[in-house]
Hints:
The complex is a heterodimer of chains A (about 250) and B (about 230). Chain A has about 250 residues and is mainly alpha-helical. Helix content of chain A is about 80%, strand content about 0%.
Amino acid sequence: MFARIRALLTPFLALLFWQALADSGWVSAYLLPAPLTVLDTFFRLYASGKLTLHVHSSLFRVFWGFTASCLIAFLLALLVCRFRPLEELLTAPLALLRMIPPLAMVPLLILWLGIGHATQITIIVLASFFPIFLNSCAGLRRVTAAQRELANSLHLGWRRYYRYVLLPAATPSIVTGVRLAFGYSWRALIGAELIAASSGLGYLIIDAQGMQRTDEVIVGILTIGLIGWLLDQLFSWAVVRTLGRRFAELRA
Amino acid sequence: MLILSRVRFAFAHHTVLHDITLDVREDGINCLLGASGGGKSTLLRVTAGLLVPDEGTVHITPEDCAVVFQDPRLLPWLTVEENLALALPARLERRQRDRAVAAILEEVQLAGLQKHLPDELSGGMAQRVGLARALLRRPRFLLMDEPFAALDAITRSELQQMLLELIRRQRVTCLFVTHDINEALAIGDAIFVLRGGCVAERFDTGDSLDPRRLRERLREQLLEPPEPEKVPS
Ligand SMILES: Nc1ncnc2c1ncn2[C@@H]1O[C@H](COP(=O)(O)OP(=O)(O)OP(=O)(O)O)[C@@H](O)[C@H]1O
Ligand SMILES: [Mg+2]
């Protein structure tokens, strides 16, 4: 309980400081609107339906992009771990691709896919592929020699081996990758929306900037942080709830 | 009953088993005594079909064997029940499976622990689950690699008694690796001494040799340095 309160203390103090700074008149309201103004703007944007629209747009992209990315990365990891030659073939291209920030691909993607959902979803896939892929690969190698020997001595078929040995051994690592990847993809999405979109929270910010509405910009920024944080918490909670008993590693 | 003949096994260029012929007492406990690093685990693995010998023949099929390893080797993410179920045929009906699991847990005196995770068991309990898993396969041959070595003396003698009873009831042939002479004398029907990669001697506890003399003989056998390897010219 006290820990909760202490955790909220810093944001609360920051808010107070921000309000005091805005009230003092040292900075213009255009550069730094007061928290209460921002709150007001938030409700106005929400009431007009504009905020919901953009949030919905961003969440839609992140949901599909992230789902696609999880599937692609995991299946590829399974293949690569199953067929070693494939790993050798893919090492160089993947190493190169890993060093390219997804946002650098935006100009090409606009050219190929326009500025709709397809571009944004591709950006999300690019941003979240590697953490999932690399962590899945690492996880799939975590079956110990002793566990493999046990599986042999029980004469487990490959189906039961995958289901009860290989995949569970990989699970903590995969979960870590997925959580990391979510953060990456959320941030990359907003970045892409700033450059190439006609909806979404990133677009809301850049649009507000064009209209010189600093308060709306701040509402957009805070909404991005809040939603990202909430989704991350939700994910951790769900993981602990479903896997925490079996996997001590995931409990912390 | 002959289970191994003229088996040779080497890791890379290090020959661990030179020439093993093993003729065990059927439906009894056959203890395999030997010094640490002498190749007892390797011999067990070859017998279980987990390692393939370089030469010689294994006369039993891996499907007839169940192994109890030195550590319990329970999968930490599966409950006791799920760990045990892995030893049963994959296509077993759920009800039959639950019944088999409950029955075997009763036998090893762990009734009601189906839903526990391995982390929640003591060392002795975990080792009993390991034993139960091996027995669930209804093996003809039960191969045990120092299964009780990590346990305290009281738990160990309890488990030895339990094993004796189970084996008497199930009619399996047991190959029991240990480096503890007292353990071998307590449970063995036959005792084999592994030394220098060969079976140096076999004792049957039914023999007229009195136990104290036998213990002395075994101790001598184990302490005696192995004969130097004969280099073929
Ligand atoms: N996987 C392996 N690769 C290479 N050498 C091995 C391997 N496993 C065992 N050895 C070697 O084989 C020899 C016999 O090992 P083994 O485990 O069979 O002995 P052990 O009699 O079971 O000993 P302990 O009583 O300590 O368990 C040892 O010298 C060991 O170094
Ligand atoms: Mg050993």
